[in-house]
Write a structure and sequence with these properties.
Layout lengths: L40 H11 L4 H13 L10 H15 L8 H5 L3 H14 L31 H9 L65 H4 L1 H23 L3 H4 L12 H11 L3 H10 L3 H8 L1
Helix pairs in contact: 2-5, 8-10
Length: about 300
């Protein structure tokens, strides 16, 4: 047979693919990183425990706590002494990891950083820090008393997620005291169960997201649109703008985390830093986005005193 009549076939590559590094736990993807409704860390913990068929208490006890206290052990301990020391610290300090407040899980502290580090080790993910305010720690803004004490929620968001069969979760946006309105449905966030009239704890040790911690009732419902803004007026418009502005900050956080201008913290003293609400009012009056406002604070430290004085 002439060579010209031979049919050519694609060669096979027998080299083995490089397998990615395996994680200890399922590498659950956080919801909404890079969007206004990015998931909060406490919500992620609840979903992570659920997907491993356990409750949050057992998940923290068996997975988080041992690694959380590991770096506190003295060096050069024998294996037995190390195990005994870990068990002693677990009995003494495990309650620390079950605190229910938002500040404990979401703030920009060393403690939150340590929890994030443990979860990164367990899941192999590198985006868990964006479920907290850790990326905001170098911003020239004061974040004192920034969190809600109970968990508000948007009844329309819950209902939409349930109806579309998507995960029901708690966005980081809802944990912030400045946010009182859902930026999507333009309605005030709900504070009490419509059935038992009790407020919801920020961190649930048991139960399902979207259901009342006390009576088990579903917390979502269909709402009538258009929104409240047509009847409530200027105060609502400002609160809606605040919610939308904070949402923009959360959406931009992964990119801002790499921005040297935002991270420059020279000169500014803590007492001169504006609060988040003061900063947002300043941006509102200047008709600029909060991301632009952060850039101005990063470029000119003297602007911080202007923000504080004008609010």
């Amino acid at each position: 047979m002439p060579i010209e009549t031979y049919e050519s076939y694609q060669s096979w590559d027998f080299s083995s693919d490089i397998l990615p590094e395996r994680s200890i736990l399922y590498s659950l993807e956080p919801i909404g990183v890079g969007t206004p409704l990015v998931e909060s860390l406490n919500s992620y913990l609840i979903r992570l425990a659920s997907i491993h068929k356990t409750n949050v208490w057992d998940f923290i006890h068996n997975y988080i706590a041992p690694l959380f206290f590991l770096n506190q052990l003295p060096k050069r301990l024998s294996q037995k002494d190390a195990v005994d020391s870990v068990m002693w610290q677990l009995h003494r300090e495990l309650d620390i990891l079950m605190r229910p407040d938002a500040e404990f899980w979401l703030d920009k502290t060393k403690h939150v950083s340590q929890v994030v580090r443990v979860l990164e080790i367990l899941t192999g993910r590198k985006d868990i820090r964006y479920l907290t305010l850790l990326p905001w720690q170098t911003w020239r803004i004061s974040f004192n008393n920034i969190f809600n004490t109970e968990q508000p929620w948007c009844v329309a968001c819950y209902q939409e997620w349930r109806y579309s069969n998507t995960p029901v979760y708690q966005p980081l946006l809802w944990a912030l005291e400045t946010v009182t309105v859902c930026p999507y449905h333009q309605r005030y966030l709900q504070l009490y169960c419509l059935y038992c009239r009790l407020s919801q704890p920020f961190f649930k040790r048991h139960g399902s997201e979207g259901k009342c911690f006390y009576c088990g009732a579903w917390l979502g419902r269909f709402v009538d649109l258009p929104s409240y803004s047509q009847t409530i007026g200027q105060k609502f418009d400002l609160e809606l703008w605040f919610a939308q502005a904070v949402g923009k900050l959360l959406a931009a956080t992964p990119e801002l985390d790499k921005n040297s201008l935002i991270q420059d913290t020279q000169v500014t003293s803590p007492r001169r830093k504006p609060t988040l609400k003061q900063f947002l009012r300043w941006c509102y009056r200047l008709e600029i986005s909060p991301v632009q406002g952060l850039s101005l604070l990063g470029i000119k430290s003297s602007n911080t005193s202007t923000v504080t004085n004008r609010t």
